[in-house]
Every structure is written in C-alpha cells, then in structure tokens.
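Schema walkthrough. Field components (list of strings):
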Amino acid sequence: MCEPARERQTWRPDLEQNPHLKHTPLHALHLSLGARMVPFAGYDMPVQYPDGVMKEHQHTRVAAGLFDVSHMGQVIVRPKSGKVEDAALALEKLVPVDVLGLGEGRQRYGLFTDAEGGILDDLMIANRGDHLFLVVNAACKDADFELLKAGLSDTCDVTMLDDRALIALQGPHAEAVLGELWADVSAMRFMDVAEADLHDVTCIISRSGYTGEDGFEISIPVASAVDVTQRLLEHPDVKPIGLGARDSLRLEAGLCLYGNDIDTTTTPVEGAIEWAMQKARRAGGAREGGFPGADRILGQLADGASRRRVGLRPEGRAPVRGGAKLFADAEGKTPVGQVTSGGFGPSVDGPVAMGYVDAGHTDVGTTLFAEVRGKYLPVAVAALPFVKQTYKR
Amino acid sequence: MLKFTEEHEWLKIEAGVATVGITEHAAGQLGDLVFVELPETGSTFAKGDSAATVESVKAASDVYCPLDGEIVEVNQAIVDDPSLVNSDPQGAAWFFKLKLANPSEADALLEEAAYKELVA
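Field assembly_structure (string):
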C-alpha cells in the first residue's frame, strides 16, 4: 500500500508543503464531527466525514450537503465615486466578462486572464448595489488581491474580508432547509444574491454553488459562523460534506477546478468556458476586448482553438485520473491530449473524466485511449455535464 | 500464521502459500473503494513490486507484493464488488494467493502485535 500522501494528489500537491496550515472558522466543528483533515490550498480542510465520500456525494444529490468553503477569498470592490458602474468598468479591464451589464442582486461567473490569454483564476462576481462582491479561489486569493489593487485602486477600494466564513448548502432540499429560516429564499433564482438574517445573523446569500445542484452559498460573519452552521446541520436533511465529495460532485457537473482543468496555460476558449464571456466583450460587442489577452482570446473565438476541454467517459470500470495521457490509437502512438480531472462518479456509477484534446478529436462519441499503468484504456469523448444540472433558473 | 507488512498488507501463510490482502487500517484510510485491479495468475513478483491497484473515489493506490513469489490464485469477488474490501478486508476480501519463493523470508515480517503498534 502506498503512503496516505498519495491520496492527496487531487488536492493541489504543489501547495501542500506548508507546515503552517491555516484554519477556517469552522475547523473545530469539523474535528468535532469526526472529519478526516487534509492540507488543501494552505488550509487544514475536511476531506471526508465518517459517512465517507460515496455517501456524502449521494446525500448531496438527493437531500442537502453542507460544505465549508471559508478558505476561499471574499473581496469587496467599492467604487470611490459611489457608482457601482465605475467599479464594473474598472473590473472589466481584468476579466473578459460583462460586469457592467450585471444587474443589482445578480452574480455571474468570471475569469481573470493574463496578457497571453491564460487564466489566472476563476471567480464569482456579484453586484451588491453600491459595490461588487467577489469570491475567488483560496490558492489564488493573495495574487488576485494584488491584481485587483494594482488594477483598480485608482477608482475603487479593494478589501479582502477576513472576518467572514463561507458555507455552501447544496442539493434538492437546500431551498426547503433554508426556507425554514428565511421564507423569501424561494423567490431567489439561480445566481441571485441577497442579504438575509439567518438566526438573527445578517448573511449574504447567493443561489449558486459548484455541484451542479440547486443550492446556496452563504457568507457569515466569523463570530456567528459556527452557530449558524451548527443550526443548519441540526436539520435532518443536512449532512456535512468534505472535499472528496466536493470534487466528485463538481467533476460530474463538468465544472472546472482551477489548477487542474484551467490555469495560466489554458485560455477560456481552450477551456470551453467562453460562455462566461458575454456578447458585450466579444468582437462587435459594446465593450469589445479591453481585457488581458484579448487579442489571443478573441482570435480563438473567431478561428477556434487548437485544443478543447471535453468530457471523457472511460468504457471500463477503471478510473482515469488527472495526468493520464490521451492517444488516438490503442497503441499509444498518436498523442492527442491529456486528462486534467478524473475519478469515479458516484451518481454516474462509473468513471468520469475531463481533459484537453487536440482539435479534430473533440466530437462527442470519438473513441480515444487513455494511458493508465501502461495500458491503453478506451474512453469516449462525452457531453458535459455528466449529470443533469438542477439550477432554479 | 498471520503476518503484516509496514505497507499495510496482511498475509496468511499455509504450506508455503500466502493469502494476501490489505489491512483494516488501510481499507479505512482509503475510504470507499470503487475499482480493484489484480495481477494475472502465473505472474511472478519480487518483494515491493506493485502487484495490484485499488482505487477509491478520489485516488489510486498500489498494493505491493509482500514477498517474492508467484501468483497462484486471485479473488475475482473483489473485482466484481470492490466495496467488499471496505466491509471485510481481512476476511472475504483477500487479493491474491502467492506461492512464496523463499518461505523463510516471512519470518522477517511483522507479527500482529507489532503491526497494531505501528498503526496505533
């Protein structure tokens, strides 16, 4: 048997050498719930609870799972002019996203790009009326903060919130559970953002998440984070869910994990997330370009990219993991790409994966061969997501 | 005679043939297993070679050959239902039977008490 260290290969191994792991405000609660903790993005995080990854995954798909995502960065961008439009226009210099067109109380997915069109991070952007509220990845949050300060400080005050926890409540029962605390939750649609009192604590709630399920992300002041989370966990439909199931849920949902499926070597078009670029920022749009790497990205939008991220369904039972090389032939002679995320999908009841494949091999149904322990296993290019999304649009 | 390795395999040795599996501790650490790949009957391995693979939802791990020998039987039941390894790792979910090249080398492996101390 290998050392447990290899279990961590999915969790950004490049960031796991730091012995000074940070704790989220819910760290003690995880321990009290019997979580197995692992290093992830500089934090000591729960990878699973006693139920195990399989049951946690399935519980989220049929009831409601509660995730601690407090390690992620929460950033306020407040325009000095008081006009949120000014913050939106300033942020549009860093993201290929229509921020100006984002209505008050709405949120959308975005990307920070670099001068070569690579992806520096992915993030959520919410219009909170008089400011923008961003949620960025834990591993990137310090770099994102510097990027935002450098790019926006002429016009905006940029503040990283270190006094708030962030939890996600995901699954078909999430609305009913939250509705017991705040009836208006049923009026929220996918990607709405609102402020509400949960157990007399003012929280920022968005109808979003990263599991493919309907659900909510809830930003809570640190002082009340344990209390609110514990009370949600008291609901019979809610169970705590660790990083293991978070990864299998997002993979089944076809969602990118930054650092695995997208990074500075991949562009939004290669990553098949150009849907995050609205018309206003594309060629011929009202605010065409003007973000880092625009030439390359708009060029790829017009002409196509030489490779694309696709879904992959291994034909056997063997999981095909991130890093596996992909070939057009069963002898491993013609390399056509590489798997970036792969594992077992409990809801699919079989292995699922995503990866980058050269143009010409990306059609759904194309058979490719993944190198796994010296063998070439057939995998079919598949449509994403692997499970039906249940967002309340 | 039950023996253990520091790599979390157990061996039950009878007449020069070791029945090999992974320990309860290892099964617990791995979590829910979803895939098992076993060696071919008739293949030979040296001590420390990767002889089998287990995959949980989140990661793959090697099962090392605990001693030099030849695979004389494998347990298809755990291929058909990998969760058996979680439910009965030191019983029904054995991995393979290994005809030992040098049965006396088993003496150097851990006794149960020493293994329990290792994982305590």
